[in-house]
Amino acid sequence: MDLREKPDADSGLTARSFTVTCPFDDSEVGQLSRSTPQEIRAAFAAAGQAQRHWAEVPVERRIEVIRRFAALVDNHQDELLDLAQRETGKARISAAEELADIGLWTHYLAREGGAALRTRQRQGGFPLLTSTYERRVPVGVVGVITPWNYPLTLPMTDSLPALLAGNGVVLKPDEQTSHTALRLVKLLREADLPQNLMSVVLGSGEEAGGAVVDHADYVMFTGSSATGKVVAQRCAQRLVGFSGELGGKNPMLVLEDADVSHAATAAVNSCFANTGQLCMSIERIYVHSSRWDEFTSTLLKRVRSLRLAPGLTWKADVGSLVGQAQLSRVSERVDEAVATGAEVLAGGRARPDIGPYFYEPTLLTNVSEGMRVHREETFGPVVSLYRVDSEEEAIDAANDTDYGLLASVWSRQRGDEVAQQLRAGSVNINDGHTAAWASMDAPMGGFGQSGIGRRHGHEGITKYTESQTIARQRLAPVARIPGMSQKQWARMMMRGVRALRSIR
After folding, report:
1. Considering only CA atoms, which of 198, 113, 170 is closest in space to residue 460?
2. In 10 A of CB 52, how many CB atoms?
3. What is the pTM of this model?
C-alpha cells in the first residue's frame, strides 16, 4: 500500500506531519506524514494477503525481481547518492559504499538464494522404509526496523532476503531517512515486486516501531542494545522470531609484527568512515609498545589530512554528524574524557564553521576506566589509543567489553591464532572492517550485547523461514504390531537401534 509522501497541499502541516532536514545546513528535505495505527494494521493485512500468493511464486521468479531491482539501483545511482547525503549528511564516498554493498548483496542473493531455500532430502528414521525431506516455509510478514546511519544498505540487506524467502515485508525506517526508504521501495515496485507485498510505515520508534513489533511474524531490528532488548522481549511475549544487530565497541589490535603503514591507513577508514556512525566502527586501538611511536605518528598524519566538507561533492573524506543529538553525545564524551585526564592527539572539537553538526576526527590517549569513551559506544568520529606490552594484554583488553560485534587484528604471522581468541562475531585479519562484511557468503552478527542472529550467508536468508520436516513411511506405520506385547515391542525397537549403530 502506498503512503502519502506529503500532507495535502491545502491542509498545511498536521499533528502527524514531520519535516526532514539536511544535516549539512538544516535546509528542508521534505515533509512526510506519520502512519496511523490503522494504516500500520492495514499494511500488515495487505502484505499478508499478497504474501500468500507470493509464497507460491517459484524462487527463480523472485530472483528475477531482485536482479531487476539491482539494475534499477545502478541506473539511479546519482539520485540515490544525493538523497542519502541530504538525509544523513554523510560524505558521498560513504554513500557510494552503500550502493556497492547493495550490488554485492543482490548478486549473492541471485546466485545463492535457490540453493539456500531448496528442499533437502534427510536421512529417514528407518532405512529403506522412511523417506524424509525438509522444506523451507516463509514465516509470513517480516517487520524490518532500520536506523538512519545506512539508509540504502540496511533496509535492503534485511528486506531482500525476506522477500526472496517468500515473505511480505513492512519496513519502518528512521524518520530522518524516510525519503530514502520510500524511494527504494518504489524501485522495487518498478522491478515488478507485487503491489502491497512490501510497505513503508513512518513514525517514531516508540509508536510506529512498537506497532510493527506487535504485528510482525518475525522482526529484524538494527539499533542500540538497550532498544534491542525491549524489542526482543516483546517478540518473546508473542513467540515470534527476532534478529538484531545492536551496538559495538570494536577493537583493533596492532601486534608487534604488524605492517604499521597498512594498519594506520585502514584505521582511518575503519574509525572515521560514515563519520564514525556505524556499529562496526573501530573505537579502540591497542598498539604494541614496540610499534607505538611509528603507528601513532603515521595515524596522526593520515587523520590530519582528512577533508571535512558539506554538500553533494566528492571532495569530502568525512561528512557531518546526523544532527544535534549526535553532536552533543560526541562532544560530551570527549570533553568529559579530557577533563578527567585524556589527551587529544587530533581533533576534539566541533566545526560549526563548516556546518552545524560537523566534528573533527578525534584521536585520544590516556583514556582510563570510568570514562564513558573507554567502555560505552560513542557512535561518532572518536577513537581511543592504548599502549600494550604483549599480545596477551591486547587480547584481554579487547575482550574486556560487554559487546562483541567486530574486531581487527594486524599481524604478519599471528593473525589467525589471535583472531580465534577474540570474542567477536567477525574478526578481520589485516583489514579494518570491510573484508568480513563484504564476504557475503559468511554470516555476520555479534556476540554478547551486540545482538542475536546473523545477516548474510545462507543463514541470512533461511532465518526468515520455518523448517518443515515431511516423512513418508513405506509398507507399515511405525507402531506396535497387533498381538505383540509391549515388552516384545520394546525389545524389537532396541534390536533395531543396535543394528543401526553397527552401520558405519
Report:
1. 113
2. 12
3. 0.95
pLDDT tens, residue by residue, 273-321: 999 999 999 999 999 999 999 999 999 999 999 999 999 999 999 999 9
Residue labelled with grid coordinates 593473525: 415
Contact 269, 252 (CB under 8 A): no
**Quick check: do 36-75+114-246+457-466 and 250-443 share a fold?**
no
> 56 in helix, strand or coil?
coil
Q: Does domain 36-75+114-246+457-466 correspond to CATH entry 3.40.605.10?
A: yes
Q: Which residues pair with 406 in a beta bridge?
A: 426
Q: What is the CA radius of gyration of the chain?
A: 26
Task: Kindly give the interhelix angle for 153-164 and 178-190, rounded to the nearest 10 degrees.
Answer: 40
Residue 486 has pLDDT above 90, yes or no: yes
E strand segments, 115-183: 120-122, 130-138, 141-145, 168-172
Lowest mean pLDDT across 133-142, 288-297, 351-360, 474-483 = 474-483
Average of per-residue pLDDT across 163-168: 98
Distance CA 417, CA 181 (A): 42
Helix/strand/coil (H/E/C) assignment for every residue in 397-436: HHHCCCCCCEEEEECCCCHHHHHCCCCCCEEEECCCCHHH
Question: Closest Cα partner for 463 from 124, 102, 221?
Answer: 221
Q: Looking at the structure, give the CATH architecture of the domain made up of residues 250-443.
A: 3-Layer(aba) Sandwich (3.40)
pLDDT digits (tens, 9 = 90+) for 213-255: 999 999 999 999 999 999 999 999 999 999 999 999 999 999 9
Q: And the C-alpha cell for 8?
A: 495535502
* Domain ranges, ordered by start, for the chain: 36-75+114-246+457-466, 250-443
CA dihedral sign of residues 431, 380, 150, 451: positive
Q: What's the CA gap between 155 and 201, in Å, rounded?
A: 13
pLDDT at 8 over 80: no
Q: H-helix or E-strand containing 312? A: none
Helix (H, G, I), strand (E, B) or coil at 492: helix
* Extended beta strands in 25-83, E state: 28-33
C-alpha cell of residue 179: 525519503
| Separation between Cα atoms, residue 487 and residue 493, nearest integer Å | 10
**DSSP output for 227-292:** HHHHHHHHHHHHT-EEEEE----EEEEE-TT--HHHHHHHHHHHHHGGGG-STT-EEEEEEEGGGH
Question: Is the pLDDT reported for residue 11 higher than 60?
Answer: no
Which residues, listed in sequence order, are joined to residue 138 by a DSSP beta bridge?
465
Q: Which of 212, 161, 188, 213 is nearest to 72 (CA)?
A: 188
Q: What is the pLDDT of residues 381-390, one digit of tens each?
A: 999 999 999 9
Contact, 342 vs 386, CB < 8 A?
A: no
Tell me the pairing of strands 362-365 and 343-346: antiparallel
Beta carbons within 10 angstroms of residue 386's beta carbon: 20
- Given a contact cutoff of 8 angstroms between Cβ atoms, the answer to whether 426 and 438 are in contact is no
**Catalytic annotation, residues:** 245, 279
Instruction: Report the run of H or E that residue 66 belongs to, with start and end.
Output: helix 59-75
